[in-house]
């Protein structure tokens, strides 16, 4: 553990805490506006433009409305758990940021420190533990609710937490194995090491970092990166995995009974959690505050304060992935959602980690091999599904051909025809039609059916 941590004076720690709190609140307000504008662009709409410059005041108005709105609790809810649930979610959303590194060593008010509140020898596990506490807030909110919609949302969140935290944990294990540390700061610095670069003409390996290409783990551990990205969407209950609060099925899911300030706590926690998992993704897989290649070759861009800006841009780009998924995908069916976690992500992560443990230097090769194998398995399953669908269609077509004509009154009740079936003319029914000259012509269809 670097001695620079836990050596800051108390007033500097207080400044970091207040700065982090204000940053997350302002960032959340901006992201509410950012989501609406980005989705508006994707869906060919304008988005918020009326309140404030560029519509930035819309999020402030929504926050003020939630704070001053009537905050009531239904009669049949559990008072203690009902109030505790949003507090847990909000507490976990802020706490996870305490071990996220924003930049390297800087000088603040004459004190050498890092733009990170603190670091721990097991910081990566600390983030996972805090994320679990946030999910418990959702589970307890559904349990304390007074209706079935809240309860079903809490049950779904429980299954979702168990399924996708396993996959997320396995994805992070790959990073810990590669970096040789659980400290978030050391994981970022481990990605600053150059990777072997071979001259295509002479075969000479360059290991001194002159080429500037460093080993970010999104490339070296690509399967872990993809699994983490999928799992982080499932952990934050965002589309297409927003099943605990599916509006089209469960009204508002676990939040159905909440309003006012307590609802605002859940709303705030949701957006901060999206930033949290995005920041963890940047820290573990995208180099954290490190400047990307080839910008890291330019002298003067290694300023740690620029690293803070680079970190914010990276997190915002990963955050934009949530917006893209919401605007471009549909909600998963629940059994498909569980199948993805238990039958695919966990197995792929386990097989990949075993391969990396056997041959650590071949992690990138195993990543490419895993992607190829998964593609061919998916293509094979897709082909079998199409063949089964064609076979089923042929069977249905054959059955319908055999029932091309039928008696709708054979069972005593009128039965509507299926596609491909032909109705015989009904006995005793008189049909009429108006001719071109305006007269009415009636036809008796008694002959079309035996009495």
From TrEMBL:
Its main location: membrane. It is a multi-pass membrane protein. It is found in: Cell membrane; Membrane. One of its GO terms (biological process) is aerobic respiration. Its EC number is 7.1.1.-. It holds the Pfam family NADHdh. Residues 432-451 are annotated as: Disordered. GO terms for cellular component: plasma membrane. The chain crosses the membrane at residues 12-34, 80-100, 120-141, 162-180, 215-234, 271-293, 305-325, 337-358, 364-380. It comes from the Bacteria. It catalyses: a quinone + NADH + 5 H(+)(in) = a quinol + NAD(+) + 4 H(+)(out). InterPro entries: NADH_UbQ_OxRdtase_su1/FPO, NADH_UbQ_OxRdtase_su1_CS. One of its GO terms (molecular function) is NADH dehydrogenase activity. Keywords: Cell membrane, Membrane, NAD, Quinone, Translocase, Transmembrane, Transmembrane helix, Ubiquinone. HAMAP family: NDH1_NuoH. NDH-1 is composed of 14 different subunits. Subunits NuoA, H, J, K, L, M, N constitute the membrane sector of the complex. NDH-1 shuttles electrons from NADH, via FMN and iron-sulfur (Fe-S) centers, to quinones in the respiratory chain. The immediate electron acceptor for the enzyme in this species is believed to be ubiquinone. Couples the redox reaction to proton translocation (for every two electrons transferred, four hydrogen ions are translocated across the cytoplasmic membrane), and thus conserves the redox energy in a proton gradient. This subunit may bind ubiquinone. Belongs to the complex I subunit 1 family. This is NADH-quinone oxidoreductase subunit H.
């Amino acid at each position: 553990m670097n001695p620079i941590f836990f050596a800051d004076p108390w007033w500097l720690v207080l400044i970091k805490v207040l700065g982090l709190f204000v940053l997350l609140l302002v960032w959340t307000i901006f992201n509410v506006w950012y989501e609406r504008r980005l989705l508006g662009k994707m869906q060919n709409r304008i988005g918020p433009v009326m309140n404030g410059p560029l519509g930035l005041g819309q999020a402030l108005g929504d926050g003020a409305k939630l704070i001053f709105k009537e905050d009531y609790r239904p009669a049949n809810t559990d008072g203690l758990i009902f109030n505790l649930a949003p507090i847990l979610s909000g507490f976990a959303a802020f706490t996870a940021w305490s071990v996220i590194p924003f930049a390297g060593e800087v000088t603040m008010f004459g004190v050498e420190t890092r733009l990170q509140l603190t670091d721990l020898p097991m910081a990566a596990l600390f983030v996972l533990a805090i994320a679990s506490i946030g999910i418990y807030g959702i589970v307890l909110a559904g349990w304390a609710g007074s209706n079935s919609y809240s309860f079903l949302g809490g049950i779904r969140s429980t299954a979702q937490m168990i399924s996708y935290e396993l996959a997320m944990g396995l994805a992070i294990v790959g990073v810990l194995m590669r970096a040789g540390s659980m400290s978030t700061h050391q994981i970022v610095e481990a990605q600053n090491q150059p990777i072997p670069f071979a001259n295509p003409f002479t075969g000479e390996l360059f290991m001194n970092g002159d080429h500037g290409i460093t080993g970010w783990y999104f490339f070296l551990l690509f399967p872990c990166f993809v699994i983490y990205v999928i799992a982080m969407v499932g952990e934050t209950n965002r589309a297409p995995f927003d099943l605990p609060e599916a509006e089209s099925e469960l009204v508002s899911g676990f939040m159905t009974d909440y309003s006012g300030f307590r609802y605002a706590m859940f709303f705030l926690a949701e957006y901060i959690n999206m930033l949290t998992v995005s920041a963890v993704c940047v820290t573990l897989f995208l180099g954290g505050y490190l400047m990307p290649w080839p910008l890291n070759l330019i002298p003067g861009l290694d300023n740690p304060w620029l690293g803070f800006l680079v970190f914010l841009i990276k997190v915002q780009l990963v955050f934009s992935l949530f917006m893209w998924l919401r605007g471009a995908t549909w909600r998963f069916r629940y059994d498909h959602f569980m199948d993805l976690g238990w039958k695919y992500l966990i197995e792929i992560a386990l097989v990949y980690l075993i391969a990396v443990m056997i041959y650590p230097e071949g992690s990138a090769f195993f990543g490419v091999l895993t992607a190829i194998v998964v593609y061919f398995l998916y293509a094979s399953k897709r082909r079998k599904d199409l063949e089964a669908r064609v076979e089923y269609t042929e069977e249905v077509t054959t059955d319908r051909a055999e029932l091309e004509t039928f008696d709708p009154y054979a069972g005593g009740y009128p039965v509507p025809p299926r596609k491909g079936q032909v109705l015989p003319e009904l006995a005793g029914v008189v049909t009429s039609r108006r001719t071109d000259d305006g007269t009415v012509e009636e036809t008796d269809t008694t002959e079309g059916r035996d009495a």
